[in-house]
Every structure is written in C-alpha cells, then in structure tokens.
Design a protein that fits this description.
The longest helix is centred in the middle third of the chain and has 17 residues. By secondary structure, the chain is of the alpha/beta class. The protein is globular. It folds into two domains: 200 residues, 3-Layer(aba) Sandwich (Aminopeptidase); 70 residues, RNA polymerase II/Efflux pump adaptor protein, barrel-sandwich hybrid domain (OB fold (Dihydrolipoamide Acetyltransferase, E2P), Beta Barrel), CATH 2.40.50.100. The protein has six helices and 15 strands. The structure holds zinc ion.
C-alpha cells in the first residue's frame, strides 16, 4: 500500500426478489481466522436472488489489516477489533473501522452473524455465543445455528455482537475450528450454520436445524505458567473429568515443565494447536455445563 491506497472492507450483497429481513454475515474480525472468510463467500456466491426473501450482506474479511499480517489483532495499530466496538470515527484505524462498520452496515441490517474460529494457534469446538441479557433478541437465532453448545457470555465488552445487540439487531457469534488452516469441514460447518439461520429467519426455504436440547456452558481460560513445547491431550468438544490431564508443557529435552489438568468435570472448549508457548499464553479453555435448555 505504501500510503497510496485507502483502507476498506469487501462487501458482497445479494438482494432477494422477495421482501424479507436483511442479514449481515461477517468474518475476519480476527485476521487469523480463515474458515469463516471462505464460508461468507460460499454462502453469498450460492444464494439465488430469485428465491431469496430479504437481503444478505456478506463481508468476508472485516479486518484486512489483521489478515495481511496473519494476526488476531491489527497489523496497523495492534488493536483487537473485537474488543473496541463501538470504535471512534476519529481514532486509529481499528477504531475507525469499528465505527464505520456500525454506521454503514449494522444500521442498515436486521441481524448479524459474526463468524470466528479458534484462531491461528488453537482449535475450538462448534459453539454459538449468545450475549447474556439479550436472550429475547438473539437466543432463537443462536439455537438455529445448530451447534449444541451455547456460551451465554462473553463478559468482556467491545464486541461487534454487543454493539449490534445494543442497536436492536439480533446478533450472535459463531465459533468452530481454527488452528491456522482453512479446512473444508470447518468451512462447511460455518456454511451450514448460516444457512440454518437463514431458514430460521424465513429467507430461504426449509426448516432450521433446531436441536431438542442445548448445553449452556461457561468457560475458563487456563494459561501457561511456563514456556516450552505444548502437547495437547484432548480434542475440542471432548468431555473431561476433574483432574484429567489435557495437556503438558515440556522443555527441549522432553522433560515436563507443567501439567495441565481439568479443574472440574466438563469439556474442553478450545485447545492450543501451536506447540510453541510462552508464559501467560492460553493452553486450554475449559467449559462447565451450567444447564441444559430445550428449543
Ligand atoms: Zn475470533
């Protein structure tokens, strides 16, 4: 770019022949989460305007400045776009990006699906994040994604999801896969979730993938106390019992520096896939099943 170009985000729009809701699907809020980016393109390229009710607005990569550096946060100002909403139209690039996205896109749509993955160095179970306190607006949409795990959460603020909800739009975050690649099965999981949500919203024919039961989970992050080589001994979505070893950190000779045991019965929501680890970095996100709900 060398100061010659303008920063922008790509937008694909399919306008249906029939009236209906306007759904925005975004990916690439984090620049190292690739499968959602391809899923947005596939959904938009394969949505037929002749049969679509409403409109689909797809943004395959919101945060190109993070994609270009293959990082979670922006390569320009170092900010995590999903912690700084609603942004600031006079701030640094990421702050302007958040403000511009809200002003030009969110204001114009009725619902938002924010597609994520476990990031460049970890893999996450299929899970839909529904913001606590906004169940009336978003729980049905979250259930319609079809993932059995619902994380009622994110106590942290500054997400695109919260800003959209505060604007009165149904909005959920969808997580699956990750680890730095772009695997077909993860792309397909995102595409299936989006299509099911479109059926729930009445935009395309068919019935959404509603499950009889959903597990509501909360998550706790385990962080390394020692640097070294991380070896995972669990898979995302797998059950774990209290005290069960789900990962170890070894030194260059293979001697154990740290053993990561499950703090309680539950499941592994996310596990590190990058072997190199520094003190303070995430090893595992443990999930506790808080309750089970029916659709
Ligand atoms: Zn993300």
């Amino acid at each position: 770019r060398a100061g010659l170009g303008e920063y922008a985000f790509p937008v694909l729009i399919v306008n249906g022949m029939q009236p209906g809701p306007r759904l925005c699907i975004i990916a690439g809020v984090h620049g190292d989460e690739y499968e959602g980016m391809e899923a947005v393109r596939r959904v938009l390229h394969h949505t037929d305007p002749a049969t679509l009710r409403g409109a689909v607005v797809g943004i395959p990569c919101v945060n190109l400045a993070a994609f270009e550096t293959a990082t979670r946060s922006s390569g320009i100002d170092g900010l995590n776009l999903n912690r700084i909403f609603p942004g600031d139209a006079t701030g640094s690039l990421s702050l302007r990006l958040a403000a511009t996205f809200l002003r030009t896109v969110i204001r114009e749509v009725d619902a938002l699906l924010d597609l994520h993955t476990g990031g460049g160095f970890g893999e996450i179970a299929p899970i839909t994040i529904v913001q606590s306190g906004y169940e009336t607006l978003a729980l049905g949409l979250g259930q319609a994604i079809g993932h059995e795990l619902l994380w009622m959460g994110g106590k942290w603020g500054g997400t695109a999801r919260i800003s959209a909800l505060e604007a009165g739009k149904a909005a959920v975050t969808v997580e699956v896969g990750g680890g730095g690649g772009c695997r077909d099965e993860t792309i397909a999981a995102h595409v299936d979730g989006v299509r099911s949500a479109m059926r729930y919203l009445g935009m395309i024919a068919g019935t959404p993938t509603m499950r009889q039961e959903y597990r509501i989970v909360s998550g706790t992050f385990d962080r390394a106390t020692s640097g070294g080589f991380f070896l995972g001994r669990a898979r995302p979505g797998g059950e774990c019992g209290a005290g069960q070893t789900v990962g170890v950190i070894v030194d260059p000779f293979g001697d154990e520096r740290q053993i990561i045991d499950a703090p309680h019965d539950g499941l592994v929501l996310w596990i590190r896939r990058r072997a190199s680890i520094q003190p303070g970095e995430e090893t595992v996100i443990f999930g506790r099943v808080e309750r089970v709900i029916t659709s």
